[in-house]
Amino acid sequence: MAEPKLRPTDQSVTALLDKIPDETRRSESYTLLGLMKRVTNTEPKIWASGLIGFGNYHYKYASGHEGDCFVAGFAPRKTALTLYITAGVERFPKLLAKLGKHKAGKGCLYIKKLDDVNLTVLEDLVSKSVEWTKSTYKS
Q: Are 121 and 99 in contact (CB under 8 A)?
């Protein structure tokens, strides 16, 4: 059986963030780091190649597929900050309506600049996603 690609590593989170060449993106990444540490009450780890994840849970789908994932996370991409909403973005339409300028996928939020969104709403959205994930996938 192949090793899962999504797993925590021993890489340094701060070393990864400090390598971000764009000063604004680096600062935004540190803001998200603080927000997610507060919400999850866990220390971040680098997962796979460049995903910053907080906490973890084990999932198993009806299809039999199972694995491990972080409870909340983000990736400081060049074009946008990608936030991983493990509960699924569609669960929070009212919060998304108040969030500000963003794009959404099934489980991801794409934010070009943190100044474009309401950070209080973002923190609430991440918090509600963490609560849902922890209650749904009890260890």
A: yes
CA-based nearest residue to 115, from 34, 37, 25 = 25
Q: What's the whole-model pTM score?
A: 0.91
Count CB-CB contacts under 10 A for residue 94.
9
Whole-number Cα distances in Å, 79 to 24, 69, 75: 12, 24, 11
Domains defined along the chain, listed by start: 13-136 (3.90.1150.200)
Angle formed by the axes of helices 119-136 and 23-40, nearest 10°: 50
Angle at 90 between CA 112 and CA 32, to 5 degrees: 35
Structure tokens at 33: 């780091």
> Tell me: the pLDDT tens digits for 67-104?
889 999 999 999 999 999 999 999 999 999 999 999 99
Residues with Cβ within 8 Å of 125's Cβ and at least 6 positions away in sequence, in order, are: 85, 92, 95, 96, 99, 109
